[in-house]
Design brief:
- It is a single chain.
- Helices cover 21% and strands 26% of the residues.
- With 196 residues, it is an alpha+beta fold.
- The chain has a single domain, classed as Metal Binding Protein, Guanine Nucleotide Exchange Factor, Chain A (Beta Complex).
- Strands 10-3-4-9-8-7-6-11 form an eight-stranded mixed sheet. The chain has a three-stranded antiparallel sheet with strand order 1-2-5, with no helix packed on it.
- A hairpin with a 6-residue loop joins strand 1 (3-5) and strand 2.
- The chain is globular.
- InterPro entries: DUF6151, Mss4-like_sf.
- It holds the Pfam family DUF6151.
Length: 196
């Protein structure tokens, strides 16, 4: 069974091994801002990309330390970005609406040895226009990634499995109250791209 944990191992979980998954390498400025805010530059590759595995939230189960789970939003309308408050390990991204029950888990909390076996070797490369440096990586498999994401969300919604998410309460609120970044702080984090 695939596992996940934060860097200090205080927060641990496991993933149900069967089900649809979507692997992405994302070069967006928001993913970079999240890694920088948490002071976790090792999450990013040389051109500022983050590897993400999208799957349904109902496949996730915390086995230890769920009290360490924390959340933030880069803006009032931004995604929920989950991390381990104990050691600031990025965990993943979700939408604010719990009925759209997917999570994009960052590779930093996953066992690298299990990635290919658990989630396949196909990796979509997205948001390459905002990758750092030259030459830019080539965008790859965007259409397929979007279709798989829609299937993930639709399946959870139609089957009602989103109600079993370990990230939201029965009332639909995040289990950790998200901090919302001030616009000036987000702008500062994104300006760091100019100095890379």
């Amino acid at each position: 069974m695939p596992s996940l944990q934060c860097q200090c191992s205080a927060l641990q979980g496991e993933l149900q091994p069967t089900g649809l998954a979507n692997r992405l390498l994302c070069y967006c400025t928001d993913c970079r801002a999240f890694a920088r805010l948490l002071q976790r530059p090792e999450v990013l590759d040389a051109q500022g990309g983050s590897e993400i595995v999208q799957l349904t939230q109902s496949r996730l189960r915390w086995t230890r330390g769920s009290e360490h789970l924390a959340a933030l939003r880069l803006s009032e309308r931004g995604m929920l970005r989950w991390y381990a408050g104990c050691c600031r390990t990025p965990i993943g991204n979700t939408l604010m609406n719990p009925k759209l029950g997917f999570i994009g888990l960052l590779h930093s909390c996953l066992d690298r040895q299990q990635l290919n076996a658990a989630f396949g070797t196909a990796v979509a490369v997205v948001n390459t226009d905002t990758a750092l440096g030259q030459p830019k990586p080539r965008q790859r498999s965007l259409g397929g990634a979007i279709l798989r994401s829609l299937r993930l969300m639709a399946g959870e919604r139609l089957a009602g499995r989103y109600k079993g998410s370990p990230l939201f309460t029965a009332e639909g609120a995040p289990v950790a109250r998200p901090q919302v970044l001030a616009p000036a702080e987000l702008a500062r984090l994104k300006q760091e791209d100019a100095h890379v």
